[in-house]
Design brief:
Layout lengths: L9 H11 L12 H6 L13 H6 L27 E5 L1 H4 L11 E2 L11 H6 L23 H5 L19 H19 L7
Parallel strand pairs: 1-2
Function: Component of the cleavage factor I (CF I) involved in pre-mRNA 3'-end processing.
Keywords: Metal-binding, mRNA processing, Nucleus, Repeat, RNA-binding, Zinc, Zinc-finger
Subcellular location: Nucleus
């Protein structure tokens, strides 16, 4: 029976680890690279390493002369790992008690544009969950009126319109009516029959 050597040299293990973690992209370091990086000319931020001192303490002794990146909190990547409930605010985060951080499935921001409306509040005028509700409570008087032109198919004012533009599900009968109305409008404007392209 052959014996297998169990002890290995530390240098061999480190070189194997480095080989396995090697970047698939080539990295070139020239003598003038630090100068380019300090002037902000070098490369994309993702190719410049983060300064270890700045990452650990939030301060770098080299300041602007440092060749590495000093990301501000807004520049740091926020990972939302497979978040499935992007329309719901985390009720634990609202209380300051969420322990999942970026791994949480729910929103950790109070962005009214991303949140769904509370259907119970819309129907009854109040909500049983109160301030802990995961949905937005929109008062009836604060809603913009529906834009009739947009509902018919087209609003000339576009984003400058002061009324609400909501998408509806397709209804083939109403769609054909809109097409007929638009065709009639083209005929009236141009004085010609047929489609205007």
């Amino acid at each position: 029976m052959a014996s297998v050597a169990t002890d290995s040299t530390p240098g061999a293990v480190e070189s194997i680890a480095k080989t396995n973690n090697a970047s698939p992209y080539p990295t070139y370091n020239f003598s003038f690279t630090p100068f380019l990086r300090s002037n902000g000319v070098a490369a994309l931020a993702s190719t410049v390493p983060v300064c270890p001192e700045y990452a650990a303490t939030g301060h770098c002794p080299r300041g602007r002369r440092c060749a590495d990146r000093h990301p501000t909190p807004s520049q740091q990547p926020q990972h939302h790992y497979g978040r499935q409930n992007d329309n719901y605010v985390c009720k634990h985060w609202l209380k300051g008690l969420c322990k999942k951080g970026d791994a949480c499935d729910y929103l950790h921001e109070y962005n009214l544009r991303k949140m769904s409306e509370c259907q119970f509040y819309n129907q009854n005028g109040y909500c049983q969950n109160g301030d802990e509700c995961l949905y937005v409570h929109v008062k009836e008087g604060s809603k913009l009126p529906l834009c009739e032109d947009y509902n018919k198919g087209f609003c000339e004012k576009g984003p400058r319109c002061g009324k609400r533009h909501t998408d509806r599900t397709a209804n083939l009968e109403s769609t054909s009516e809109v097409v007929d109305q638009q065709a009639t409008r083209v005929v009236k404007l141009t004085g010609e029959t047929g489609w205007q392209i």
